[in-house]
C-alpha cells in the first residue's frame, strides 16, 4: 500500500507580514510517496531533484522529522518507506523544506485513515521547518498544508486562520539562480523595531487583510510595503531594487522578497499583467547576468 502527495511552494511574509502571512501557489511543489513497511522504521529510500544536497538520515530530513513526531505523539508503531521528489529549488525562498514537511506528514495521516485533522498536522510540519532552518516559523508550512492565504495570528498558542483572496489576484515569482540560507537571512535581522516602524507596519498588515477580503486592489497595493525586514534583507539579493522597480513599472500592485529570499514576488491584477511583470523582472535580473526562472500563479 502506498500513497503519493503533492505539496505546493509558498510565499511567506507577503511584504508586511513577517512570520505571520503566507500563501500557496499552484506550482511548483514537492511530491512525496510513502509506503507501509513490515517494521517500525522510517526509511528514506529515494530523493530526487536535490542535486544530492539533502540527507537520507530520516532523523534529520524535513520530510521525515514531522512523520516521526506525528507517529510518536499518536503512539503509532508503524514504519514507512519515504520517497521525496523535489520539484522546486532549495534555498529559494519558496518554502522548499515546508513543502516536503507538509507532504510527508499529510501522506502518512492519509495512509493511516486520517486519525488527525489536516489543521492538527501543523505543529508536526513546523518541526520539519525547525530542523531545516533552526526556527519553527509557520508562514510556509501553514499555507502549504491548508492552501490559500493563511495568517498565523499567534504562535503561542498556535492560532491560524484563512483569508479569502480576490479572483483576479495573481502572483509573479522570480527565482534568481543564487542561494540564500534562511538561517543566515534571519540572523541578520535586528531584534528591536522602532515604534514608528511598528505603527507603519501594523497599518499595512491591517490594510492587506482588508484589501484581500474586500477585493480592493488599490488597498492591497498601498499595503504592500515592508518597513522592517525588506530594507535589511535586500542586501542579500543582487539587483533587488532594480527588479522591484521593473515590476512596478510593468504594472504590478507591489513587489517584495518571497520568504527569506532570494526569490522576489509581485502581485498583479489579472494574469496578463502578471505575465508582463514576469518578463520585466526577469529582464532586470538578466541585465546583471543573473539567470532566473519565473512562475505565475493565481493566489
Ligand atoms: N518568515 C520566514 C522568514 C520565512 O522570513 O525568515 C522563511 O522561510
Automatic annotation (TrEMBL):
One of its GO terms (molecular function) is homoserine kinase activity. It is found in: Cytoplasm. SUPFAM superfamilies: GHMP Kinase, C-terminal domain (SSF55060), Ribosomal protein S5 domain 2-like (SSF54211). The keyword Signal does not apply. Residues 69-148 form the GHMP kinase N-terminal domain. ATP binds at residues 89-99. GO terms for biological process: threonine biosynthetic process. Its EC number is 2.7.1.39. It comes from the Bacteria. GO terms for cellular component: cytoplasm. Belongs to the GHMP kinase family. Homoserine kinase subfamily. This is Homoserine kinase. It comes from Emticicia agri. The lineage of its organism: Bacteria, Pseudomonadati, Bacteroidota, Cytophagia, Cytophagales.
